[in-house]
Input
Amino acid sequence: MKCNFPENFWWGAATSGPQTEGRFQKKHANMFDYYYEIKPEDFYKYQGPDVASNFFNDFRHDIQLMKEAGLNSVRTSIQWSRLIEDLEKNTVNPEAVRFYNEVIDEFLKHGITPMINLHHFDLPAELYHRHGGWESKHVVELYAGFAEKCFELFGDRVKHWFTHNEPLVVVEGGYYLQFHYPNKVNGAAAVQVAYNLQLASSLAIKKFRQLNLDGKIGVILNLTPPYPSTNEPEDIHASEIANLWLNRMYMDASVKGEFPQELVELLKGEKVLWDSTESELLLIKENTIDLLGINFYHPHRVSRPKYSANSLAVDFVPNKFWQDYELPSARMNVDKGWEIYPKAIYDIAKDVQNNYGNIDWFISENGMGVSNEERYMDETGVIHDDYRIQFIQEHLYWLHKAMEEGSNCLGYHLWTPIDCWSWKNAYRNRYGLISTNIHTQAKTLKKSAHWFKTLDENNGFEIEEALIQ
Ligand code: IFM
Output
C-alpha cells in the first residue's frame, strides 16, 4: 500500500543543544552539566555531556550529513546557559551569538528549515541554586527575557519557535520520579513547577507576539495516550486522571489557554493547587500557541492504584492515582523498555482533531533507541537498522490514515539526526539516522538515513500489508 503525503511535508529530525554541542566555551553549567559534575556515577558508563556529539566544532559537517539523509527541516535548541553571559542582566555572550548565527545560516544554506526550541531540560544550574529554579517566578521572568533575546537575534531567519521541549519531564524527573537534578520527591513543588513552566511558555509567547515577527510559535509536548487495563470503572477512572496530568494539563493550557477544571479541583482537594494570580491566568488565556509539536514514543497503560489514593499519612504525588500496567505480550523496544504501539499516533491525531480545534501540529519526536547497534554494522561501517525503518513505517502508516481523515499534521520529525548524548542513559541507546563513534567522532549514515532520503524524495513510501497491525 502506498502512503503519499502532502506537498511541503516536513521530513525532518529533532535534537537539542545540550545533547549535541558539548560544553566547549560555555560559561554556565546547565542542570545536567551540574548533575554530572557532582554525581558522574549516575550516568551510564560515566559518560557526560562534555563532548556530546561535538556539534559545537563539527556543525558544518553534521549539517551536511543531515542533508544527505534527506532532512528538509531540523529542530535543535539554543542553550540559555551558552547564549546568556550575565543571567540576571540578560546580556549575551558574543561567541555564542556567532555560533548560533552560523548554525542557523548553515541550515538555511543547505535548504533545511531550522526550528528552534528554547528550553530542553537545560535551565542554568545557578538559577536553581540561587532562586529555586522553576519553582521561582523570578526565573520565569528571566526565561522570558532570554526568549526575547533569541527572537530579537535570530527571528529574522528562524520562523518556527518552541518554548519548551517536554515540560512534563522536567516536573516528573526533577520533582517526584528522580531522574533529573534536583531529584526531589515533593508533589507540591512538582505542581508549582508544572504551573510555572506553563507561565514561562505563555510569557515567552507574549514577548514573541509583541515583536511582531513573521513566524510561528508553539510548544513541544510528550504525549502518552492512556489505555485502561480493563473496562472496569476503577481502571477507566485511573486512566482519566493519568490523562489529566500527563496529557491534558499542558495540552489544554497551551491550546485552549486554560488548565482542565477537573485537574484544578483535584489539586485543590489535595491542598496542593499552584500559587497563581488572576493576571497570570489571563496571560495564559491570551497567549496560546500557533503550532503544536507532539513527541510520541509509547502508550501508557494504566490500572487503578495499588493502594487507595485516600490512604492516610501519604504525601501527595501526582501518580498516586494510578498504576502503570504492562500489557502481557506487548510488542517492545526491549532496550529502552518502551512498548511499541504505532496506532497510538492515530489516536493522538484524532484527539487533536476532535478536541483541540484541529490545530496545526506535527510529530516533533518519534524514534527507536537501540543499544549496541554495532551488532548490525557491515564491513564498511554502515549500520543496517532495518528495525528502525520498520518502526518509522508503522508509525507513518497510522499518521497517514489520520491525515486522510482530516488531521492537520504538517510533518514528521524523527528523534534524532545523529546519535547523541541522552541524559543519564548517555550513549547507551542510539536513535540516530547517522551513527557517531564516540571515541573518534566519525559519523556515518545508517541504512535508515538512505531510506529516509528516498522517503523525502518520494514524499511517501510503500508499506507491506503485513506490517499494518
Ligand atoms: O533524548 C530524549 C530527548 O531529549 C527528549 N525526548 C526523548 C528523547 C529520547 O529519550
Summary: Residues 2-467 form a domain with the TIM Barrel fold (CATH 3.20.20.80). The chain has a mean pLDDT of 98.
